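hiii so um. not sure if this is the right channel but i have a protein structure encoded as tokens and i wanna go backwards to a sequence. like what aa goes where. can anyone help
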């Protein structure tokens, strides 16, 4: 998360007239905690957040990509599973965009399938060697 700035006493949220607790990473306007929206670990004001739209985080997208590769190659699916689980935790804590929840959930499911396929492959290989 972006560190909160320590604005002077005159810095106020234009919407609520409450003391500002930070600034928008995009436009630099003052925002209070009630107005702060988070996207990609950056604090945004409501107007900038609406302009940009809510998008899945890069981590949710990478987790989905790795999990998908894992269906064919096995090991990347494990990384996708771990990343997806981590991202879902960040979404639950409000540290990441909720728009990534569908991608992260799908990545986790595909990662589990990859893990099962990899485990079955190892079991098959061990049986063939003995």
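sure thing!! here u go:
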């Amino acid at each position: 998360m972006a560190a909160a700035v320590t604005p002077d006493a005159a810095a106020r949220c234009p919407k609520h007239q409450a003391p500002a607790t930070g600034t928008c990473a995009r436009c630099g306007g003052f925002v209070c905690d009630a107005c702060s929206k988070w996207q990609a670990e950056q604090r945004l004001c409501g107007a900038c957040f609406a302009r940009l739209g809510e998008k899945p985080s890069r981590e949710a997208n990478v987790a989905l990509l790795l999990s998908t590769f894992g269906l064919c190659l096995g090991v990347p699916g494990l990384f996708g599973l771990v990343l997806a689980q981590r991202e879902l935790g960040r979404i639950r804590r409000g540290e990441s965009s909720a728009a990534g929840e569908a991608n992260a959930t799908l990545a986790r499911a595909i990662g589990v399938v990859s893990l099962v396929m990899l485990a079955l492959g190892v079991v098959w290989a061990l049986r063939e060697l003995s």
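oh and The first helix runs from residue 46 to 52.
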